[in-house]
């Protein structure tokens, strides 16, 4: 299945706008860092229950609202990032590959962004719950959120590896077909 240019354009623009908002926009990670001594957000780093208690304990009151806004924007980013990952996977691993191994790789490359999105949404939900229920911070909730973060980051790394494999395979196939080998 070939993805239409206007779908690429729409998802690409949506991804870039969402990326701007979660990184440098008025509700982005940099803005959250202004209210918690520069720590920023929890969602792209390792953190423990003690880290969360410490950071939230130092958080200025406006930082809680800012953090909540960040996670709302991040949820939109999750959708656009997932769509972009899926489109890349579908393009690099088209249906009807000659090799069973490449079909398997394609299936994994499509499943990983979906899994990443699920872990990311679980993480966001648990962190929003923690922010909204502060000063009560439940260790089990933070441990589950931290586990979801680690799983999300692992999915991103593994998907990146499969994207590189798919790109190499696509390039080699193109080169070899051009030489009629």
Question: Describe it for me?
Answer:
The protein is mostly helical. 77% of the residues lie in helices and 0% in strands. The protein contains six helices and no strands. The chain has helices at residues 5-23, 29-33, 49-58, 61-92, 100-133, 139-178. The longest helix is centred in the last third of the chain and has 40 residues, at 139-178. It is elongated. 30% of the residues are buried.
SSE order, one letter for each helix or strand? HHHHHH
| Main structural class | mainly alpha
Query: How many angstroms does the end-to-end distance come to?
Result: 25 Å
Shape: elongated
Q: Note the main sheet.
A: none
Rg from alpha-carbon coordinates: 19 Å
Arithmetic mean of pLDDT: 94
Number of strands: 0
The percentage of residues in β strands lies in under 5%
Provide a compact summary of the structure.
The protein has 181 residues and is mainly alpha-helical. It is built from 6 helices and no strands.
Based on the model shown, name its key terms.
single chain, 181 residues, mainly alpha, 6 helices, 77% helix, elongated
Sequence-ordered SSE layout with sheet pairings:
Elements: H1 5-23, H2 29-33, H3 49-58, H4 61-92, H5 100-133, H6 139-178
Helix pairs in contact: 1-4, 4-5, 4-6, 5-6
